Amino acid sequence: MSTSQFPTRQLYYDGRAQPASSGKTFKSINPSNATPLAEIQVAAHTDIDTAIAAADRAFHSWSQTPPIARARILQKAAALLRERNDEIARVETLDSGKAYTETSTVDVVTGADTLEYYANLVGGGGLNGETTQLREDAWVYTKKAPLGVCVGIGAWNYPIQIALWKSAPCLAAGNTMIYKPSEFTPLHAQTLAEIYTEAGLPAGVFNVVYGAGDVGAYLTAHPTIAKVSFTGQVTTGMKVAGSAAGNMKYVTMELGGKSPLIILPDAELDSAVDGAMMANFYSTGQVCTNGTRVFVPASMKTAFEKRLLEKMEYIRPGPLFDDTTNFGPLSSAVHAEKVAYYIRHGIETDKATLLYGGLGKPQVPKELQDGFWIRPTVFTNCTDDMKIVKEEIFGPVMSILTYETVDEVVKRANTTELGLAAGVFTNNLNLAHRIIDQLQAGITWINTWGESPAEMAVGGWKNSGVGVENGRRGIEAWVKNKSTLVDTNGAVATVFAKL
């Protein structure tokens, strides 16, 4: 007898839920107490083939649907998401382990914003091409065409938000999608598919398959797939990108980071501390853009650490639906073990100074003690060569480093193979802009951290990714361009004429 809280999740393709043929399932687990939430059916290769065939059939009519008609459907889906914000956020909290104070105000809301943004963009002519007059009797015009059947592979830290970041521009541009959520946070996928269907999206335009890396690999290599959009860790992303690009598929990769947060000597202390805490402990540190390398002027170190320690007491782990809880567990047992490994390494091998937190679990009620909790942790007296400073931990672990000059800190900030995000805190905006211009990162902030509105294109440099998501630039990742030159002269210029 199943003790799961939710019904078994089937695949979703051709406009409805469909049973998987593999006979295999996995469990979605509540990270706060390690109890099962639902059984999830794993897609067999034949199931994936069938889902892709449904998406391929749907592509012709959907791609020919006028953009304004596509926009109306997506706008309705955005409205449904907002209407059901709280119920969707409750499931997101149970599945991801994030506090309800976060999922109810950020996750669904920002996803719906992105869907509405792209609906409005294409409905208002955002896919129009350009026309250029070359000379009196010759013109060039361009058109944007959808790619075809695309794959979206989601991540477990912002499940429904990432699903919408991928599907919104994909569908708005006239493509169809096969979406595979992370096996750690799969419960949102069918809900989103059902909302799309209710809003009027034709059968086969948005489809869901479940499974681990082998399912993702099969999707990526499938000959019908035109594009793969992946969010996740760098090593996996490199494999996905290599497989897709090797078969001449389009790719968008949003990968990891080890981002520098630079505090200048004139920065307002409380703002700098608040920014550093948001950049390290929001979502329990499970954010790819986190500013985990916090560079503090040597002259400010004592004051910064004193104020930080005072504010660390405002981090409140506890029941996820309590209005005062602002810190949840990690997403899974395996991830909790990984983060604990880095904390142990920081203490025992790197020999960094443990300023706050460390190994073990924070104080939580008895019914939550089996969950994947970890203490928010701060290391200081860190150096650039430490493992905890160099490698992405993806957990609530802050490393404080000191510096003497601006030139020094910019050079050190850029000494990494990753380039996802970076930020500066200062009252000198002219200097802030000069520093930002030198930082090798695709997403940057000044006197704030973490906000990524639908209007803002985001994407990594170096090993942190390929392409961008969101903003006007984001739609370009889901279309191909066709240029046509029309000559109305009535004669063809030729070098092959009689002398």
- Provide the β-strand percentage band: 15-25%
Question: So what's the overall shape?
Answer: globular
Number of strands: 22
Helix content: 25-40%
Oligomeric composition of the shown chains = single chain
Q: According to CATH, what is the topology of the largest domain? A: Aldehyde Dehydrogenase, Chain A, domain 1
Mean pLDDT over the residues: 97
CATH top level of the largest domain is Alpha Beta
Radius of gyration (Å)? 24 Å
- Cα separation of the termini: 92 Å
Number of domains: 2
Q: What can be said about the biggest beta sheet?
A: 7 strands, mixed
Widest sheet, order of strands: 14-15-16-13-12-18-19
**Which architecture name of the largest domain does CATH use?**
3-Layer(aba) Sandwich
Name the CATH superfamily assignment of the largest domain. Answer: Aldehyde Dehydrogenase, Chain A, domain 1
List the total number of helices.
15
Helix vs. strand class? alpha/beta
Catalytic activity: an aldehyde + NAD(+) + H2O = a carboxylate + NADH + 2 H(+)
InterPro entries: Ald_DH/histidinol_DH, Ald_DH_C, Ald_DH_CS_CYS, Ald_DH_CS_GLU, Ald_DH_N, Aldehyde_DH_dom
Protein name: aldehyde dehydrogenase (NAD(+))
Region (Disordered): 1-30
List the helices and strands and how they pair.
Blueprint lengths: L10 E3 L2 E3 L6 E6 L4 E7 L3 H20 L2 H17 L1 H12 L3 H24 L7 E5 L2 E9 L2 E5 L5 H14 L3 E5 L7 H12 L6 E3 L4 H9 L3 E7 L2 H13 L3 E5 L5 E4 L5 H13 L11 E5 L3 H12 L20 H16 L4 E4 L20 E4 L6 H4 L6 E7 L2 H8 L4 E2 L1 E5 L3 H10 L4 E4 L14 E2 L2 E2 L4 H6 L2 E9 L12
Parallel strand pairs: 7-8, 7-10, 8-9, 10-11, 12-13, 12-18, 13-16, 15-16, 18-19
Antiparallel strand pairs: 1-2, 3-4, 5-6, 6-22, 11-21, 14-15, 17-20
